[in-house]
Write a structure and sequence with these properties.
Belongs to the thioredoxin family. This is Thioredoxin. InterPro entries: Thioredoxin, Thioredoxin-like_sf, Thioredoxin_CS, Thioredoxin_domain. The chain is built from five helices and five strands. With 123 residues, it is α/β, with parallel strands linked by helices. It has a single domain, classed as Glutaredoxin (3-Layer(aba) Sandwich). The chain has a five-stranded mixed sheet. Strand 2, helix 2 and strand 3 form a beta-alpha-beta unit.
Length: 123
């Protein structure tokens, strides 16, 4: 599946269902340029996963919302819950391993922990 361009306008709809991997990048970033073909190859191999890209130069508000201070940064969602965030380019094998881990998550447990964390932040 081709990658999706993620913006503030389509963000919420994009991350609400299934597994979503988000690559925060910029055109001038050499590590981003090295990671892009790895990310694109994975998007072709995993048609059931949404692969989204955020151009941090164009979508500065979205990058700030995520607290991105180093690029590339990879963020992963599953069923609308953020489950991973890490700066730095991944090797192909590491990205595949991460995808496998996300697919195996017990989402009942993740959802419960996520709701508890949100309640603690609010209360």
């Amino acid at each position: 599946m081709p990658t999706t361009t993620l913006t503030t306008a389509n963000h919420d709809d994009t991350v609400k269902d299934g597994i979503v991997l988000i690559d925060f990048w910029a055109g001038w970033c050499v590590p981003c340029q090295r990671f892009a073909p790895i990310f694109d190859k994975a998007s072709e191999a995993h048609e059931d996963i949404t692969f989204a890209k955020v151009d941090t130069e164009d979508q500065q508000q979205l990058a700030m919302q995520y607290g991105v201070t180093s690029i590339p940064t990879l963020v992963a969602y599953r069923d609308g819950i953020p489950v991973f965030s890490q700066p730095g380019a991944l090797r192909e094998a590491d990205l595949e391993d991460l995808i496998g881990q996300i697919e195996k998550l017990d989402m009942a447990e993740v959802s419960k922990a996520y709701e508890q964390a949100k309640a603690q932040q609010q209360g």
